[in-house]
Prior knowledge:
Blueprint: H1 2-6, E1 17-22, H2 37-40, H3 44-52, E2 54-59, H4 69-76, H5 88-95, E3 105-114, E4 120-122, H6 130-141, E5 149-156, E6 159-165, H7 196-212, E7 221-228, H8 236-240, E8 244-247, H9 251-259, E9 263-264, H10 272-282, E10 288-293, H11 295-301, H12 305-323, E11 329-333, E12 350-355, H13 370-374, E13 379-382, H14 386-393
Helix pairs in contact: 5-9, 10-12, 11-12
Amino acid sequence: MPYEYLTPLLNNQSSKIVLLVMDGLGGLPLERDGLTELETAATPHLDALAAEGCLGQTIPIRPGVTPGSGPAHLALFGYDPLVYDIGRGVLESVGVGLEIRRGDVAARGNFCTLDGNGLISDRRAGRISTAEALPVVEKMKTIKIPGVDIEVKHVKEYRFAVVFRGEGLEADLADTDPQATGKAPLPVVAHRTPSERAAQLFNQWVAEVQRVLADEPKANGVTLRGFATDPGLPSYQDVYGLRAACVAVYPMYKGVAQLVGMDVIDFEGETPADEFAAVARIWNDYDFIFIHIKKTDSMGEDGNFAGKVKVIEGVDEALPALLDLKPDVLMVTGDHSTPAKLRAHSWHPVPFLLWAPASHRPDLQVSYGERACARGGLGTFLAQEAMSLALAHALRMNKYGA
């Protein structure tokens, strides 16, 4: 683990580190000789940082492995995602304030639309609004299953989180989303014998949910994914000696930040400008601030190339407010690639920008994009090594050895 050798090297240097993550930032050209979303976007401020700083590209998990958002963020935070396996259920649940204890089983849920034959006609229930989803969640809260305590909480739009608490529960369970329309939701299946009791209880609950929601026009079914329990992660304070904060809109990213000991900051609004204003408000209280931008990923998954370009441009437009705070180290990257061309996460390397005026070594690149990053001075490296780069450039580490 990176922190096992980093922690003894830490010093008391006072410096500020910012990690700005545009979720799913990496992309692909739509045409053979075209540009990616990031290369297409008009990003004068990011290009200026690239010209002054240094570029590279990260591998979120290992070469050729397509990551989920949870492990990809853990890697950026310096935790080996192959060692610490966190299901999305825990991330969503913690992000909306549900307590997860050892032995609990949490899952992320999606509302879906089922046709008269019980087949999925819409995997996201028409992307129902939060206002539409809240009364549906209240119906689900009325369901009781003998032998287990159940907590359900709305997350955002068509998403919810559910936690089972009881004796003899194991989280090694298969997702129930068939990842396609025209198919029925899959049953909850135990991967191992100790998880069979949890599978049985979840299947009972899902059957009751579909009965209770049968008259809903859109959200009349559910799928579950990311079954997990508390992984017991070491905290950021213990590992890096940093007072760390998270500024994010979506609960899942608040969840993964909380699991590593970051304080989650409440703020109004959802735009990059709103997030940067929140950073300014807490600037004097923290050494490390993680900022998460979600909609780059959403646009990529929707296949909306132009929409993803626009989100990137919006971040760039708001960036001066963040730069005015004068961070000692600014890292701008993504957790993974989500090319609009593929409409999904992918295994492609992720653009990475490091700007640390007092300590970075400039390379020859003058713009922020995939091809420039592939030629950048930082080279290609595992995402879990980003934190050692950040600490070094913040002058927070002493020499290793005599």
